[in-house]
Amino acid sequence: MAPHVCPWWFGYALASPLRRWFQDPRKILTPFVKEGMTVLDVGCGMGFFTLEMARLVGKAGRVIAVDLQDKMLAGLRRRAMKQGLSDRIQTRLCGPDDLGVSDPVDFALSFAVAHEVPDPTSFFRQIAAVLKPGGSLLLVEPKLHVSEEQFRGVVEDAVAAGLKLAEYSGVEVGRNALFKAE
Ligand SMILES: C[S@@+](CC[C@H](N)C(=O)[O-])C[C@H]1O[C@@H](n2cnc3c(N)ncnc32)[C@H](O)[C@@H]1O
User: Fold this and answer.
1) Is beta strand 105-111 parallel, antiparallel or unpaired with respect to 38-42?
2) Is residue 57 part of a domain?
3) Is 6 within a domain?
4) N or C: which end of the chain has fewer CB atoms below 10 A?
5) What atom in ligand 1 is closest to the CA of residue 96?
6) Ligand 1 centroid to 42 CA: how many Å?
7) pTM above 0.90, yes or no
8) Can you give the residue range of the structural domain that contains 124?
9) Does residue 14 sit within a domain?
10) What is the per-residue pLDDT across 38-86, written as a single tens digit (0 to 9) for each?
11) What's the domain count of the chain?
């Protein structure tokens, strides 16, 4: 059975500023995203993290925001326009098994997405393929939908895809793991 995909209308709730009270995107992303970087937000939804990534990379940087649902990307584009960040964000509609990204990136975020993808090993392999040497992936999964045991399985999938597990010393958020490109 195909995994459940977050409905597009829930994107509005996920992008709500109230979410900052328990998941502060700036605190979560600051250790990883620096000025001038090219970064990837996989399964970006309506851009709760994408917009902060765009602020952190600055004018010289670029954010590639990929999602399966065009309505999520449309919501992100509207928010980016309002906040004057459109010039540094590229939105890309992807397929369930094909992220369609080939640009090398310094950092990738997969936040509450991996449990929705049909083939996690292929998903992580595609991310590993675009991470620059020394680049990192921050993986976060929601405790509500993903048990500790299931998360261990997801981490194993990422390792099987060629990513190297690293120590995460950032903000306590969801079930998380940090990976480095080999
Ligand atoms: C729970 S939402 C999280 C959105 C965003 N990362 C956030 O934290 O606000 C999951 C997102 O992943 C997207 N998604 C699901 N399966 C995907 C896939 N195979 N490839 C890319 N995106 C996918 C959904 O469309 C949805 O926008």
Assistant:
1) parallel
2) yes
3) no
4) N
5) 19
6) 7
7) yes
8) 23-181
9) no
10) 999 999 999 999 999 999 999 999 999 999 999 999 999 999 999 999 9
11) 1
